[in-house]
Amino acid sequence: MYKKKGFTLIEIIAALFIFSIIVAITFNFINFNNYLFSNISSSVDKKGNLRIAMDFVIEKIRNGNVIIIEENNGKVTIDGKSIYVKNNILRYDVDSQQIAPEITDFKVFLENETSGLYRVRIVSEIYSFETFVMKRGK
Questions:
Q1: Residue ranges of the domains in the chain?
Q2: What is the pLDDT of residue 1?
Q3: Which residues, other chains included, contact 29 with Cβ-Cβ below 8 Å and sequence gap of 6+?
Q4: What is the pLDDT of residues 69-83, one digit of tens each?
């Protein structure tokens, strides 16, 4: 008696179907994890940009002698050099000196003139930071 060895066509089709389901699930899992990683990285970058901008502004206010707040255009001039937002980039003195990207709003408020207390608010698309700063020497 002669026995044929091998798989039938139905067995091969069933195996390919199961294999394709496993590949599709694996691909979706990898794609979803890649999506999450890119979103988290973008979020961390935006938060980091806000911190860089806030640290820069705080240092300039603390050490500044003459601070002029222009409320109508959101510009702050410290010792003759302006800090402002243009095209969603925080800039210092001239357009080419960029401090931090992805900044949508920047405001400085004088809270108490006698003590030199200022409130700083910096906003990006997702986050906003607000803090109080006191000038040195007051």
A1: 9-134
A2: 60
A3: none
A4: 988 888 999 999 999
